[in-house]
Amino acid sequence: MEWGVLFMGSVGSGKTCAIRSISDIGVVDTDAAATDETARLKSHTTVAMDVGVLHLSDNDKLRLCGAPGQDRFDFMWDILLMQCRGLVLFVNHANPDPVADLDHYLRALETRLTTQKMPMVVGITHVDKNPLVPLDRYRDHLRQHPCKFMDILPPVFQVDARERTQVRGLLAALTGLLEMAERFPIRQRKGVTA
């Protein structure tokens, strides 16, 4: 079995780093020199996608796709969403308004995923740069702004995208959500309404 997982989030949130830290193959990337306001954050940025693979067991694997964070490349989001069955949304906790970043991606996903459900986990990165701000603000926002493309509230994790074990934990949670959705379609789950 092969599932595609899409990593999304703002520029510098750790998508490419996470895929590089977890992939069992050399990552194919489309990094290019940053030429706009992104250059203030980093020298290179993803302009189309990153692709890696994580082997789970026997013949099971996750295809890891990273979407560009800049809105001007958002046409790639549509293409990559068609290829994937689950989402990892990274939020850079050190950004000036990370909750607004979260909301931006939730709204963009809701616009694109009008006819399908997609399990998602949220990874909060760069927490060390803003340690006094509580992570509960993300959970609160997700509770107050539910999205139709999700059956259940996504779990929120603090993650260092450079650490393989932490990224693997995110993917384990997402894999659990994917398996639950496959084995127990929404109409069969007790206590959940469509």
Characteristic key phrases:
194 residues; alpha/beta; seven-stranded mixed β-sheet; single chain; disordered C terminus
Could you walk me through the main structural features you see in this protein, from its secondary elements to its overall organization?
- The protein is built from 5 helices and 7 strands.
- α1 (about 15-20) crosses α5.
- The radius of gyration is 16 Å and the shape is globular.
- It is α/β, with parallel strands linked by helices.
- The chain has a 7-stranded mixed sheet, sandwiched between helices.
- The two termini are about 25 Å apart.
- β3 and β4 (about 60-65) form a beta hairpin.
Main β-sheet description: 7 strands, mixed
Structure summary, number of beta strands: 7
Oligomer: single chain
Strand numbers in spatial order across the main sheet: 2-3-4-1-5-6-7
Find the structural class using helix and strand composition: alpha/beta
Q: Compute the CA-based radius of gyration.
A: 16 Å
Helix content, binned percent: 25-40%
Low-confidence stretches: 187-194
Mean pLDDT: 84
Total number of helices: 5
Distance between the termini: 27 Å
Run of helices and strands = EHEEEHEHEHEH
Give the strand content. Answer: 25-35%
* General shape: globular
